[in-house]
Amino acid sequence: MGRESWKEVRDSLAARIERGELLPGAQLPVEPALCAEFGVGRHSLRRAIRELALEGKLRVVQGAGTFIQNAPLITYHIGRRTRFRQNLRDQGVTPSGEHLAHEILPAPAHVAEELRVDPGTALHRVIRRGLADGVPISLGIGWHRVDRFPDLGERRAAGVSVSDIYRNHGIPDYFRKRTTIFTRRPTPEEAALLSQHGESPVLVVTKVDVAPDDHVIGFSEAVWAGDRIKFSLDQGGRDDD
Q1: Which residues, 6+ apart, have CB-to-CB distance to 212 below 8 Å?
Q2: Which Pfam families does this chain map to (predicted)?
Q3: Is 135 found in the same domain as 58?
Q4: Which domain holds residue 34?
Q5: Per-residue pLDDT tens over the stretch 86-124
């Protein structure tokens, strides 16, 4: 192969993934075997693998190897009655979620401003990971007042939805007041939890939940794998995770 041999390796591996010859979760052969198969040096092979990892087709696990990723591209509708699980099910994708952590913390200044409370107010912080067909696609950090929802952390850890917790505390309905979306590089921890390359961008979505009387009841920040999601923005909005 010539000076652009890495491109031929990239395109060949990408084609195999698209044809289903390399299935999600399968591990690629070790470097020496791949170099011999394609007739390239390690530099060209590593560049091809890096490009495929940036595209979300491969996942490199330090000390374990390189695995096929090829996660589905999800269209996530942000709308008045759209929900995480329903978004995925409508596209033939199986949704699931994992509780990662919950704790009570003093409100950081930016969160206090969103929730309209004083900085330092005791808040629940709940961290969860969303998956599509078993592949991580999002990390969600939710903030709620402890005095308003004293049992929220423990109930979220037990798998109870935010909607059910709101209802149990006298809030039968809620709406998305405001949504912001921006991109950035993930932190190393975020990249690891999302099983993506550290240089692949993430989409950060923040939202404010309000009750029907427009009283703010929750604030959340979600970090989405940028190569696995695209957003469709509809009027209004509510999520149930």
Answers
A1: 173, 174, 175
A2: GntR, UTRA
A3: no
A4: 5-68
A5: 888 888 889 999 999 999 999 999 999 999 999 999 999
